[in-house]
């Protein structure tokens, strides 16, 4: 049903970009890169590749996955990144024995890894055009 809607309305960015398309695209990215992920900030650069986007059309606008947090960490850094993330948080807890500090660092690391500011630094989106395999 979603595929039919997307095929009939390829310019409807409320469906072809953002969380709806990311639900499918992030899954494909994780299945194909489970160990090391796709790399920090690479979702907007890779989301238009045929191997990831399935029935979603190529879009020319900036598209972040919109999820953030642990989902972006797993997608960007893979299972190894998730394990490293957990080890860092465990070490912080053992040093402080304070869950509030652990949650603060969890939020801070999540902000650094998935925020649009860090994304723009990595992809240099203000100076480089977005990748599209139809150009």
Outline of the structure:
The protein is an all-alpha fold and 135 residues long. It has helices spanning 2-8, 13-16, 19-32, 43-46, 50-53, 69-96, 99-114, 116-123.
| Global Rg | 17 Å
How do the SSEs run, as a string of H and E? HHHHHHHH
Tell me what portion of residues adopts beta-strand conformation.
Answer: under 5%
| Number of beta-strand segments | 0
> Average pLDDT, to the nearest integer?
78
Distance between the termini: 29 Å
> Which outline best applies?
elongated
Largest sheet: none
Count of individual helical segments: 8
Query: What is the helix fraction of residues, given as a range?
Result: 55-70%
> Structural class of the helices, strands and pairings?
mainly alpha
Low-confidence stretches: 122-135
Provide an overview of this structure.
21% of the residues are buried. The protein is elongated and about 55 Å long. It has 135 residues and is an all-alpha fold. The longest helix is centred in the middle third of the chain and has 28 residues, at 69-96. Helices cover 63% and strands 0% of the residues. The protein contains eight helices and no strands. Helix 6 runs antiparallel to helix 7 (99-114).
Keywords:
mainly alpha; 135 residues; single chain; 8 helices
Produce the secondary structure layout:
Elements: H1 2-8, H2 13-16, H3 19-32, H4 43-46, H5 50-53, H6 69-96, H7 99-114, H8 116-123
Helix pairs in contact: 6-7
